[in-house]
Amino acid sequence: MPEHSELRLPDGVRLHVETTGPVDADVTVILLHGWTLDGRSWHRQLTALHEALGAAVRLVAYDARGHGRSSCMPLRTATLAQLGDDLAAMVDAVAPTGRVVLVGHSMGGMTIMEYAHRHPEHFAARTAGLAFVSTTAEGHTHTVYGLTPRIARLIRLAETAGAGVLARCGSWRPPRALLRALRPSIRWLLFGDHCDATDIRLVTSAVARASLRSIGGFRASIGAQHRLDTLTALAHLPAAALVGDRDRLTPPPCAESIAAALPTTDLTVCPGAGHMLMMERPDVVNGALLGVLGQVLGHPAPDRPAGSGPVAAAPGA
């Protein structure tokens, strides 16, 4: 059974942590969720990895500051830079020894890049593998929401203005009744051609747990981050990048640029899938994670699951 605990950070913020597996495992897998979500996003991956690898690895999923069951934070710390520092502290707390494999979805992937940028020696000493799911190293460069560039610019202006208002609303949470009314919009924005009803309920529940400060406060640094140069220094690590071709937030060019910076990366593009790839294509994501872990553990990579979609070689690979 998973163990639940809290990590108290130097500024007093408390992070909710869920762990499975032995403390002294040689490899610890840390899974980082996306903006406005929480660690429950990874429930299918946590189950699959535990069933496949058992005590060979320790599994960790935590709620970022201002999200899920973690506490709210001062507005000035609602930045990717702070999330990178939080991840460094998490590595020390949950994996004081052994190797670490980092898996990030959306903002979680950007957090990994920020950790590598801000703590390069710490990162190099501990990190043995990477997986980037529906994320970007180029801020909002490629984000057009599946619309025309002109309309996308208008939406971004409105979103930026709204984020500033929400950021000043402190620890309040979005009203659940409002989120239920917005469920069709959430489904359109985050999912591809098909969406399981339980998944949209989980996502809506996660957004309801995120503080308005975190919903609005993180927007600026998420849009501005550029870390392709940081990634090029990590090309020696086993890595995977996955994206859905219906992803309106981090479309395929985002994953393609990550794969170009990490030439040995296994790039997977899933037809018909949107931003919530770990829910929409759990077998594909699980297979990619097992492939990276197989390299880290010295095992051969597993066969790719049937129906996983085309695999594109990274440009120049």
UniProtKB/TrEMBL annotation:
Annotated TM spans: none
Acetylation recorded as keyword: no
Gene3D superfamilies in the cross-refs: alpha/beta hydrolase
One Pfam family linked to the record: Abhydrolase_6
Gene Ontology molecular functions: hydrolase activity
UniProt entry keywords in alphabetical sequence: Hydrolase
InterPro entries linked to this entry: AB_hydrolase_1, AB_hydrolase_fold, AB_hydrolase_sf, Epox_hydrolase-like
Domain of life where this protein originates: Bacteria
Record domain AB hydrolase-1: where: 29-286
Gene Ontology CC annotations of this record: membrane
Protein's UniProt name: Alpha/beta hydrolase
Originating organism: Micromonospora costi
